[in-house]
Amino acid sequence: MKKIIKNGTIVTATDTYEADLLIKDGKIAMIGQHLEEKGAEVIDAKGYYVFPGGIDPHTHLDMPFGGTVTKDDFESGTIAAAFGGTTTIIDFCLTNKGEPLKKAIETWHNKAKGKAVIDYSFHLMISEITDEVLEELPKVIEEEGITSFKVFMAYKNVFQADDGTLYRTLVAAKELGALVMVHAENGDVIDYLTKKALADGNTDPIYHALTRPPELEGEATGRACQLTELAGSQLYVVHVTCAQAVEKIAEARNKGLDVWGETCPQYLVLDQSYLEKPDFEGAKYVWSPPLREKWHQEVLWNALKNGQLQTLGSDQCSFDFKGQKELGRGDFTKIPNGGPMIEDRVSILFSEGVKKGRITLNQFVDIMSTRIAKLFGLFPKKGTIAVGSDADLVIFDPNIERVISAETHHMAVDYNAFEGMKITGEPVSVLSRGEFVVRDKQFVGKPGYGQYLKRAKYGTLTLSKQDEKLTI
């Protein structure tokens, strides 16, 4: 069905202007003044911003971890994402050593099938580099459109890969046109510190943070950057939390290396003291890397402002407090790592970033959507408002004030990490490929509507010039 969005203020990563949008066949067909189209439904967006739909590059839905499974699956997780103004997610597909990559990808397709209400894609975890893995990777890119590989430098004896695996993944990614992502913490030293803490009788949630100091994130980030330089490859550092890691990324970029950094809303507004909440409530804030001392927050905001960090992911990885986080009572290492962030990512960036003058409105769009689309082979199909792009749109009220709460959120999890936080701004309606998923703050989408997205190789366009190099 054709639609015209009238009277809104369109905001992209580069421009802000008042215009109408004509939507046909799921695409943006025309942008102009006083548009008319026979048979088109007219949506009045007066007083609202119209943003490209948010893209969350970092989610873990329906993921087994720590002896349990994340509470939000592809249905509840994508519904919550849509309410928050996100229209595309890229979820992490876990692999198992010794098993074909294809088997893991099929498992993740089955998790999403018939459930996702918005479009989605996958990153692929690399835990080992064998001849079989190297033989499969080109097929993963060509057949599945998975053009980003994640290597864990932490979670010893669970996910952690050694430096040789990281280096060989970087070399392979350079040859194949993929982007390597790292969880950058020194897993070996963390393993020692956690065992020592438990031996000393230190079992409370706060020791999760104290055994993963920022120096270990900075060290691993710097090591990954150096290996990237040696391989002549490209690197994306996920969930950057601290000044030490920002410094290493900035150093690499100043040397001209192809290195990018992501942070998350929890690191911008919450701090380490939350892990000291009484009655084991600190467990709600256990994720990795951990929350840092408050002074790191302004370092992260400044890094987003000056371009040292470029994107915001949610690292959505939700576990109930009751029955799941409680698995770690008496042993902080058994608390399932992760938190519920997918719904509030965009609004927190707008409220704490734009409204408080830390970033501009156009930077906001770039950080939560456009840059992510460019880095992960989705641009300009996704991530912008332009003729020919998918009509993934957010009609956003920039002035409404509200309080974040588990009582009103749409995630399946039983708490909200930002409980009680007062913010300004909220998505009113959200469209995916021209169809309402959320309309006037009511869910009108359909599980199974979301489509799997095959992504272009790193640094190439996706819409009309598939093989043309793109300057990111």
Automatic annotation (TrEMBL):
One of its GO terms (molecular function) is hydrolase activity, acting on carbon-nitrogen (but not peptide) bonds, in cyclic amides. It holds the Pfam family Amidohydro_1. Transmembrane segments: none annotated. GO terms for cellular component: cytosol. It comes from the Bacteria. Keywords: Hydrolase, Metal-binding. Carbamylation allows a single lysine to coordinate two divalent metal cations. Its cofactor is Zn(2+). The keyword Hydrolase applies. Residues 49-437 form the Amidohydrolase-related domain. CDD domains: D-HYD. The modification N6-carboxylysine is found at residue 150. PANTHER family: COLLAPSIN RESPONSE MEDIATOR PROTEIN (PTHR11647:SF1), HYDRANTOINASE/DIHYDROPYRIMIDINASE FAMILY MEMBER (PTHR11647). Belongs to the metallo-dependent hydrolases superfamily. Hydantoinase/dihydropyrimidinase family. This is Dihydropyrimidinase.
